[in-house]
Each structure stands twice: as C-alpha cells, then as structure tokens.
Specification:
Elements lengths: L1 E12 L3 H12 L4 E4 L26 H14 L14 H14 L3 E3 L2 E9 L2 E9 L2 E12 L5 H6 L3 E3 L14 E4 L3 H10 L14 E4 L9 H10 L11 E5 L7 E3 L13 H25 L7 E5 L9 E3 L7 H5 L7 E5 L10 H7 L10 E4 L11 E3 L8 H7 L2 H21 L8 H11 L5
The structure holds flavin-adenine dinucleotide.
C-alpha cells in the first residue's frame, strides 16, 4: 500500500463547494493541507454536476467567497451578477481558479482518490485509506474535514448518519444536468418575449433563463408547446416536469440545463438505483434535446455540449451531530451562541409532486433575514478531530434543503478551517471547542456584523 509520509494539519475529504473553500482558508491560516477528491476537478456540485448559477443570498459572504468571485470576474473579463446577488459563473473557470489558488498557497490535491476507510485511535481519526489512481494509499492528519457531501468520512469513522426524510426515508429528487451548445440565444429570447414568456426579462444573452414548469403562467405559450409534445409522445410528463436552463458567462450559445429532474424512484444510497438514475437521466436529456431542436426557435443548430460528470444529488446522508437544526429553528430565524455561519435560502425540497413542493415554500425570508448554523451541527459526539462542512451537516431533512445552497456550503467550509486553526492553537479537540469563542472569531474575521 502506498503511504504519503507527511502528516497534514488538515485532511479535507472532498474538494467540492465546501471542501475547496475549507482547504483554501486553512492554507491561508498557515496550516498544511491535503485534499482527497474522487474526480479530476475541484468544485464538486458547482463544477462536476454543472450546477450554475449560485442562487442569491442576502447575508454577508465570507471574504474568500468574495475573493473567488473577483478572480472569476477578472478571468472572464465581465461582471457575473446582474440586478441581484445571483452569481452566473462558468464551471470550467471555477475548476481552474480554485485549483490554482490552492496550489499557489502550497496545498496538495490528490485527484482520482476515493476515501474508503478511516482508522480510529482513542476517539480520533489517525489515518484514512483511499483508492488513488487505482492504488490503495494511506494519508495521516491531525484534523479531518468531511466535505464529501455524502458524509462519507463520518460513515467510515462510525459517526451516525441519517438519509432521506423522517417519515419514509425518501431522498430529495435527483437531477442529471447537461449543457446544450449551438443555441442562438438572441433568437430564443426574442421568440420568448413574443410568446408571453415573463419568467425572465429576455433583454440580455448573458443573463437569460429559460423555464418550463407546468401550469406556471410566467411560461406563456411554452406551456401549450410542451403539453403538445407530451400528448404526442415526444416527451414524457417527467421530462417536462421541471425544465430550466441558464446562459453561461464566456460560453456564447451554451445553456446549462438544471435537469432533467428524475422520477424519485430510488434511494441515492442504493448503488444499483444510482446507476439507473444515470441511464434514465441520459435518455431524458436526449428526448428533451430533440424536442427543443425541432420545436423551439434558436435551437435549430443545437447539440449536446456535455453532460454532468456527477449526478445532481441534492441530499443523501447527513451526520447526526451535537445539535440537529430543525424546522422550528428555521421558522424562528434562530441565532445561536455558537452560530458560525448564516443562511437564508428557503426550504427547497424537490419531489415528484409540485403540490408537495409548494407546501414547503410557505415560510420565505425577506432579504436581510437569516438564521445561524450552530457549530454543534458540524461536529459529533463520537470523534474528536472530525468536522463536517457542506450539505451533509446535522439537520433535519427539510432544513437540509435550505443549508445546501452553494454560498452557505462555502461559508461553512471557511468556518471549519477556522475551527481547525483554533483547535491546533489551543489543543482543544474539534468536538470540544466552545462554539461561542469560534463564533466571535468568525464574526471578526469572516463576517461583517450587521
Ligand atoms: C440539481 C441541483 C441543482 C442545484 N441548484 C442550486 C442552485 O441553483 N444554486 C445553489 O446555490 N445551489 C444549488 N444546488 C445545491 C448546491 O449546488 C449543493 O448542495 C452544494 O454545491 C453542495 O456542496 P458540498 O460541498 O456540500 O458538496 P459537493 O460540492 O457535492 O462536494 C462533494 C465533493 O466530495 C467528493 N467526494 C464525495 N465522496 C468522496 C469520497 N469518498 N472520496 C473522495 N471524494 C469524495 C465529490 O467528488 C465532490 O467533489 C443544487 C444542487 C443540485 C444537485
């Protein structure tokens, strides 16, 4: 078995949305860092699952999120926001920018590296085992940040986890995103404008959103056109259930499709079901593509530019940590003594049933309102040097659908890095840190107090 000799201050499992930020912040704090990433790129769901743009948040972002956005804007040579805090980014650029920042700060990245096991000694993880470039390999560290999105390290380390909703364990719906290129976006948006489409102002190729959701009047005449496609068998009801596409900065003629959203038939933790999602999703992509090419002006010369390299999993496993953030906390816009990150996205559970989804939307925040994520949601009772950041922290099913937003995952990643620095300086294990002290540090260092 290969062994990497260095003992890292911080081992980050999963270099996705939260993991890349956790690693970068830890490096900026002077810690040595290795990232274990199972794909060939950083950014996770943002890049490999093609999830763009970043939905808006009205809470102050960390300095690091602002820094990355500024780098992306400099690289693309254009502003990535229009009239709201939505950030329209190009996933390919995010991969490059995040990697360059981390390497420039002296970080180590292990790509094609999948965590398989964790060795525990006296309540702490001492070493993790991976399959890296098809070689079994060991990595040692002092602090371990689980940014796998799936609580992969928690499971390997024996920390309890939950999956799906509290009633029947059903997960949120999965999507298999893809990009269509060769679109004449000007033609498309002008056509939409004339077809009573009001979802978007249709003024601009860079910030154009194309949406079809059954019965939504903002979709104008698209409703009739898609319904005709369903009736004549070109499309299925599932195909047209949720069609949404965004233009992409610096990719003229390309739009990123937030779908297809797959019929919610399997647990995402079931390996066979997972693979069936991929095949079903690919067939849905093809049907939708053929339909658009045939019926919607602007798509005449279109082609499938790429499909995502990761399935769009909104929710899989969550850790059961020292505190479980729940609906009452969300509704109360609760603040905590150990609140180390802020969030304001609504409860956004994707299911097969639009009516069920609407039920969840009931409490939405006004801009400026937010709740806090307690430090205790990131740490466990069981393992001293473990911390989670990202969509698998300790929450209920519904609240997970609010915390999973990219900005929030990034904020948690930065806070987790601060916790590792604090733990190293004070010798207090991650799961025994007084979150109040950490909150004070986070407010001072990474948030501007409102
Ligand atoms: C279809 C869809 C649409 C969405 N729409 C939006 C949106 O419009 N705006 C928004 O802000 N958010 C959106 N989200 C939510 C958001 O994108 C994700 O919740 C967020 O990016 C998750 O970040 P993360 O860091 O927790 O996980 P990820 O970004 O998924 O990162 C996890 C990383 O861990 C790696 N990994 C996993 N297991 C292992 C292992 N065993 N070993 C090594 N590496 C491993 C993965 O390869 C990945 O890189 C959407 C999500 C989906 C799926």
């Amino acid at each position: 078995m290969s062994k990497i000799e260095q003992i890292y201050d911080v081992v980050v499992v999963g270099g996705g949305t939260a993991g890349a930020m956790a690693a970068l912040e830890a490096l900026k704090q002077g810690l040595s860092v290795i990232i274990i990433e199972k794909t060939l790129a950083l950014g996770g769901t943002m890049t490999n699952a093609l999830v763009t743009p970043m939905m808006p948040t009205y809470v102050e972002n960390t300095h690091l999120t602002k820094h990355i956005k500024a780098l992306l804007e400099a690289y693309e040579g254009k502003k990535l926001t229009k009239d709201s805090p939505v950030v329209w980014f190009n996933p390919e650029t995010v991969k490059y920018v995040m990697e360059k920042e981390i390497l420039d700060c002296g970080g180590t990245i292990l790509y094609d590296a999948t965590l398989t096991e964790a060795q525990i000694k006296e309540g702490s993880i001492v070493e993790v085992t991976l399959l890296a470039a098809n070689q079994p390999c060991r990595v040692k560290g002092r602090h371990f940040i689980d940014c796998s999105g799936d609580a992969a390290l928690a499971k390997a380390a024996g920390i309890p986890t939950r999956s799906g909703n509290e009633t029947d364990g059903k997960n949120q719906a999965v999507s298999f995103r893809f990009e269509i290129g060769g679109i004449d976006i000007s033609t498309l948006r002008n056509w939409c404008k004339n077809e009573a489409y009001t979802f978007n102002d249709c003024l601009n190729d860079q910030f154009f959103e194309f949406v079809h959701v059954p019965n939504n009047p903002a979709c104008g005449n698209l409703l009739e056109i898609f319904e005709a496609g369903r009736k004549n068998g070109e499309l299925t009801a599932a195909d047209i259930r949720y069609v949404q596409a965004f233009s992409i900065p610096a990719k003229p003629g390309v739009m990123s499709f937030n779908g297809p959203q797959l019929p919610n038939d399997h647990a995402v933790t079931d390996p066979l079901g997972f693979s069936q999602y991929v095949s079903t999703g690919r067939a849905m992509q093809r049907r939708l593509f053929q339909f658009l090419k045939k019926h919607i002006p602007g798509f005449e010369q279109a082609y499938i530019a790429q499909e995502a390299r990761m399935l769009g999993v909104r929710e899989s496993c969550r850790i059961v940590g020292q505190y479980v953030l729940d609906e009452a906390d969300y509704i109360a816009r609760r603040k905590f003594d150990d609140g180390i990150a802020r969030a304001d996205w609504y409860v956004d559970v994707h299911t097969d049933d639009l009516e069920v989804e609407k039920e969840h939307f009931k409490v939405k925040y006004d801009p400026g309102e937010y709740y806090e994520i307690p430090y205790r949601c990131l740490v466990s009772h069981e393992v001293k040097n473990y911390i989670a950041a990202g969509r698998h922290i300790s929450t209920t099913f519904k609240v997970q659908s609010s915390v999973r937003i990219q900005f929030t995952c990034q904020n948690m990643g930065v806070a987790a890095a601060y916790a590792c620095k604090y733990s190293k300086e004070t010798n207090i294990p991650l799961n025994q840190i007084d979150g109040k002290a950490l909150k004070a540090l986070c407010l001072k260092e990474i948030y501007t107090e409102r």
